[in-house]
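Methods: holo model generation. Sequences were used as deposited, without trimming of termini or removal of tags, and paired with ligand SMILES retrieved from the corresponding compound records. Each pair was processed once, and we did not select among multiple samples. The sequence and flavin mononucleotide SMILES for this entry were:
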Amino acid sequence: MQGYTEAIFRSAINQIGGIDVYYAPFIRIENGEIRKKHLADIAPENNHGLQVVPQVLANSATEMLQVANAVAAMGYTELNWNLGCPFPMVAKRQLGAGLLPHPETIDRILAEFEAQSHLSLSVKMRLGYVSADEVWPVIDVLNRHSIKEIIVHPRIGKQMYNGAADSGVLPDIVAKSAHAVAYNGDTRTAEQAHLLIEKNPTVTHLMIGRGLLCNPFLALEIKGQTLNGYNRRNQLMNFVGTIAERQLDRLQGAGHFLQKMTTYWEYWSAMFDDAHRALKTVKKCRTVEEYTDKVQDIVLGWKMAGTASA
Ligand SMILES: Cc1cc2nc3c(=O)[nH]c(=O)nc-3n(C[C@H](O)[C@H](O)[C@H](O)COP(=O)(O)O)c2cc1C
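and the model returned the structure below.
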């Protein structure tokens, strides 16, 4: 998730644990090149101890191969292809979810890619761009190619993030797909994850986006590990503090820093009973020192959501 789950976030959340694989924000070709900051984000020296899969947003084998070669040169053996990004600026150019109504193009790109790259390819996809029926011809095409896994986010592109992800379609996709199927969408609690796995025992992974931003302990909780309140607050303080420290090193000036941390707190505030007041408190900070003090108060003292006492 661009702007959130770059290397700084991945390393910090990895200290909490529970996550097997990190899918990095997508890389695309712009004016024939890959942005240096996108390559730096996945460089091994910035991802110590993390299992990272780079992701590409492309609508031609040439562009995919350019990204594949760059990540292979860093030692990566897997690339994930984004067929899910719903933003109109992307989708209108037949990128991301915008490619889903064009299975013949997907077929052609995969054939060309396979012939020229040794990287193993996984696919992240929505059900369609305009209609959820688009998924079936795409599954047929994917079945003809060598794909490591398909990660299904069961919304259509036109929905953006509205409505609920339709996990009910999963059994049909598992039945029709020749490949391993992973699930993504709206996993916010360990209970939801357990129910999904119970109903779909062959699903190989859960990919979690916003749920992990709202609760960095979610992956641990799904794996049945819980922390007592004291440890949880201390780990959270370390996590939030590490991200702040590294963002402060990276960003020029308090304004940029406070803006960046506010975008995180739009999600992190959900961990507290009075989420609205937590976000408002962070938004009102005008200096780094004020931010540090207020955040310490919130993280170590405020009542956590869903708990009986402070
Ligand atoms: C700000 C933002 C950036 C995202 N960037 C990516 C991306 O680069 N690659 C990707 O596969 N999905 C991306 N997503 C989509 C998420 O991976 C995920 O499919 C979506 O949020 C639904 O899952 P969730 O309910 O677990 O968040 C992004 C989502 C958001 C909100």
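The chain has a mean pLDDT of 97.
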